[in-house]
Amino acid sequence: MRLLVTGGAGFIGTNFVHSTLSQHPEVAVTVLDALTYAGSRESLAPVADDIRLVEGDIADAAVVGSLVAESDAVVHFAAESHVDNALNDPEPFLHSNVVGTFTILEAVRRHGVRLHHVSTDEVYGDLPLDGAQRFTETTPYNPSSPYSSTKAASDMLVRAWTRSYGVAATISNCSNNYGPYQHVEKFIPRQITNVLTGRRPKLYGRGVNVRDWIHVDDHNAAVWRILADGQVGRTYLIGADSERSNITVLQDILRLMGRDADDFEHVTDRSGHDLRYAIDPTVLRDELGWRPQHTDFESGLRATIEWYKNNESWWAPLKDAVESRYEERGQ
Ligand SMILES: NC(=O)c1ccc[n+]([C@@H]2O[C@H](COP(=O)([O-])OP(=O)(O)OC[C@H]3O[C@@H](n4cnc5c(N)ncnc54)[C@H](O)[C@@H]3O)[C@@H](O)[C@H]2O)c1
């Protein structure tokens, strides 16, 4: 099988490429990645001899067309992914998430290639903090941020191309991921590397917002399950039943890193900050038999902390610039 992985130099894509090479050695992997600030050639260095890495934009129809033509399937991770960046400058999100996905769709349509589109639970907006309600495949789209609205738009394009042109596509909407190789702008790596660089961790607002955490390897195992056995035209929700408030996660990090539970600063909250996300993954479990393997959040978090301790050369060059951008925004 010849697999084209877009965004394979980013956080989830890198982990997907690594696990694919070890668990599906028969698959020939090509990565298409623009190597934006969020993409890292170094993340793929350990497997550089086993893959083809093409530096290019998913909105470039010529590059996308020629790579799709020689592939059996496309797993589409490439996107602008950080809500705070989208609030600051939404334009790249329209370009990569909407025009980029349109370009991929046109290529898979032309060449009759299977597509799996990777999306987020943020397309559903947020849930009340105190309820038991969770997102399902039929929850209406209600995105809140420039990021989630462009991901919602990309999902709609995939649905329309499936219905109108018979494109063989599946979609997955996953909750918040954690694990190795995540950019230090994101919540968990930011707090871990704040501690490692002698900074105090930062918490938006009161920290009551709830996220439903999943280890990146569990997300990627689900993507493989959907690619192999999913029904074309369907959407699958991926989640690991692991809801936690931001303050709880931050205090877990502080405890695991030997710091006091109150050794952090409250900073200006994110504008329009979604309150709670929660996924009901029943369909994926019942129909495709997927189960998360990393069910102990604390041990996954401990391993993630160890990874950042042991891979300072990967993140240290990015850290100061990320923190100065946050500081400019009072965060
Ligand atoms: N991180 C999460 O918690 C999470 C949860 C659910 C879904 N998702 C989705 O998973 C996907 C991957 O997320 P991530 O966290 O790995 O993001 P990331 O920001 O770490 O990586 C994105 C990658 O896409 C590349 N890219 C961006 N624009 C591109 C373009 N125009 N052309 C080619 N490459 C481009 C970047 O260089 C980078 O390597 C995204 O589609 C995101 O919406 C993420």
Short description:
By secondary structure, the protein is of the alpha/beta class. The protein is built from eleven helices and 13 strands. 43% of the residues lie in helices and 16% in strands.
Structural class computed from helices and strand pairing: alpha/beta
Instruction: Quickly name the level 1 CATH class of the domain at 2-178 and 213-238.
Output: Alpha Beta
CATH superfamily of the domain at 2-178 and 213-238: NAD(P)-binding Rossmann-like Domain
Estimate the strand proportion: 15-25%
| Percent in helix | 40-55%
Q: How many H/I helical runs?
A: 11
Bound molecules: nicotinamide-adenine-dinucleotide
- Which whole number gives the mean pLDDT? 97
User: Unreliable runs, pLDDT <50, ≥5 residues?
Assistant: none
Distance between the termini: 45 Å
What is the radius of gyration? 19 Å
Oligomer kind:
single chain
**Name of the CATH architecture of the domain at 2-178 and 213-238:** 3-Layer(aba) Sandwich
Please describe the biggest sheet, giving its number of strands, its sense, and whether it closes into a barrel.
7 strands, parallel
Query: Which descriptor suits the 3D outline?
Result: globular
DSSP E strands, number: 13
